[in-house]
């Protein structure tokens, strides 16, 4: 199938928009690390990213969104769907997590860790966490349904996806509270516990 001349610019525009959005978010996270979330203004972020405040608001409606926006989510979902078909859903999740997080360079890893710490530590961001989790759950639920050949509204698919989201949030919180940067190690431990049925002895 050939790509028409009209299709190519649209693709280029989307890639340019994605790069601009990523650059604004990266500059925002660097400023939050350097001077704190509350002390950083939209104007400072725009200046650092070399865009106007109006351009900032075209990509992020609020300062909060520069932290809440998780650009790894769609990449993780794509990697999950592309894992070998013989893998179980949990093994595919583990493979996707390692494929994406292991591919991040040191600065990307630092910025992602900073983003997660902010989500869980800044009160106004933490208050928005439920919305973020709900969006992630919908994406995961659709991907899981596609991978196992069921409908997204299948009860077992919903329960499985909800369980996975729950343990990943718990793993994030545990790693942050423990002061660890090893998110992927905590994910692995959480996935192993889920595989074991999460046994809990008194």
From TrEMBL:
Pfam name, any one: TetR_N
Q: What PROSITE patterns does UniProt report for this protein, alphabetically?
A: HTH_TETR_2
Q: Which UniProt keywords apply?
A: DNA-binding, Transcription, Transcription regulation
Q: Name one GO molecular function term.
A: transcription cis-regulatory region binding
- Asked whether the UniProt record includes Transcription regulation among its keywords, one would answer yes
What is the protein name for this chain?
A: TetR family transcriptional regulator
